[in-house]
Amino acid sequence: MFFKTSIYRNKKKIFIFGALITILFVRERINVTNRANINSQDHSLDKDFFQRHLWPQQSTEQQLTCKLPRLYLTGHDHIEKYNDCKLKEEFGYLKNSHWYFNKTVISKYIDFECSYRNISRTDDFDLVLSKYENLHDSQKISHDVIEVNCIESSKKKRNLYNNLHVQIVNRMHLRHKVNIENNDQCKPMNILLLSYDSISRVSWFRRLPKTTEYLIKKMKTTILYGHNIIGDGTPACMIPVLTGKKEEELPSTLKSDPNGQYVDQAYPFIWNDLHKKGYMSFHMEDWPQVSAFTYRLRGFSNKTAHHYMRSYQLALWRRVQNAYFANKDDLCIGSIKRNKKALDLVQEFIDMYKTKSNYAAIMHYIENSHDGNERVNYLDHDLKKFLSHNFESGNLNNTALILYSDHGSRFGMDRWSNQGDMEERLPFLSIFLPNSYIRQNSDKFKNLQRNAQQLTTPFDIHETIRELSCTNKPKKKQEIRAISLLNHIPINRTCQSIGLSIHYCVCDQNWEFLNPKEQFSVQSAEYVVAYLNKELSKAEDYCMPLKIKKINYVKQAKIGGDVFYKINFITMPNKAKYEAMVKFDPDEKKLLIKSTDSVSRLDAYGSQSKCLEKFPSSKKLTVDLRKFCLCKPMRKSKA
């Protein structure tokens, strides 16, 4: 008995040892594959070409007013493993508002039956699902989004297929009639406003080399080198781009405000004027749980773009969220990657209206880049293919393409690098104009090229769209904060002259590192944390106070005659990474911090501040504490 047991134990040890060797071998193969992917990317990357086009080419006069930083093509090496779609073939597809079965797939099944139901939105947070109806080949489908379900007709009723299908339905009947006689002087262009979340210019060049090379070499696209963010997060970019205003300049649309309005009731969205000009419109953001107008804000009621893809994104997220959070999501809808499906919908919209009407397509894509840029590389092939198809087919002959990001990475490894603070503030922005426009407007094109080397903001994008779409509004006086990129931007434009906080400004910032262990560095960090705790005391029943765990670095710079310090530190108990900008007051001999906007959080806060959703609106919490608050245990359990 003992002999048999010993043999069993030895066999077990050998089995475990062999399994460990196998796991280590597989892991090393994966690492080798990932390294090979990175190395092949490096090998195909003409670093001299990309570095040359990454740097601004400012005149001496431009540098005297706002010298832009020279960033380096470093970092951004980590690539997340790419997984193919689990579903290889789909039962059918929508085309021209009809359903067609995929004959190759259904021929594998002897006896089956399919049904579908329509999915529509009541508002930006709730869906209405119709009853299932039988689905037949060549059946007319007039809905934007349907869910298709196919089962065996036998007694087992085994599920064979379930998937969402989405399409662009012709809505020309909604188009405003336009008096053509009034349009003789200004010829409106189509507008493609395509943005990707959290990608700096460096990361864009590094992770999307095929797209970048095509934009520069083939399309002769203008890249803007001084495009500066004006605040934290996507709304700080999207609201100015689409309305010409800051969030705080508009009526409240906050969920936490009992008097908050829907955004389409409160905001002057540019598509309202585009519709009056006869444009057809498309608007889509993926990731509905964090999208710009629904994360903190109330979202839209009904005054939206003609094609508002919210019902598709809501239904899609409900299907995939569990797999996503369990890290088992293949990032697909059926057999198609979701980022490609987004571009396919834009393409379908273009093809629907390119011969019928002017159009404006607005897309903001979040999923591949919001939580880190490790998945950005997988956008490159499909985005380059989308660009080359439309450029080479002539679809862009009367179209302005603004391809950009809202800001650079705000957290993660890329943000923690030595130039991560500048990258966050300098997102990618490019503008393509067709040759026909350039020939007829050579002076405006020269302005664009000159402005590409100067300080610009999302307000300028808004004005540019208005000029290209002939929806300019008369102004009593020239506004230096918002100028079309096709017009002359004064050489003396500075962050101060347009009201841009020094915390976000990229001009003339030559930072010098200080010793983080020196008394001044420690006192600076403690000053910032004391300020944050004072703000957190406004919700002291909900949030825990913070204390310093580690000071990563302290930098000093002289900007506009004043001395500023940038402090990078980690706090407890929320284990959060922060970067703060403070000013030294020489008269009072002390540090000054303007507001919580001067403090950026460099890692995701996730659900740490979820209890603030229950904060009583009657107490009127006027400051956003989400990036600082760690809910107290009793509040966390109730959230």
Secondary structure: helix percent? 25-40%
Beta fraction: 15-25%
**Record field, number of beta strands:** 23
**Spatial order of the strands in the main sheet?**
10-17-16-9-15-11-12
Distance between the termini: 58 Å
CA radius of gyration: 27 Å
Mean pLDDT across the residues is 89
Shape field: globular
Tell me what you see in this structure.
- It is a single chain.
- The model is unreliable at 1-43 (pLDDT under 50).
- It is globular and about 85 Å long.
- Helix 6 runs parallel beside helix 12 (380-393).
- It contains 18 helices and 23 strands.
- The strands form five sheets. The protein has a seven-stranded mixed β-sheet with strand order 10-17-16-9-15-11-12, with helices on both faces.
- The protein is of the alpha+beta class.
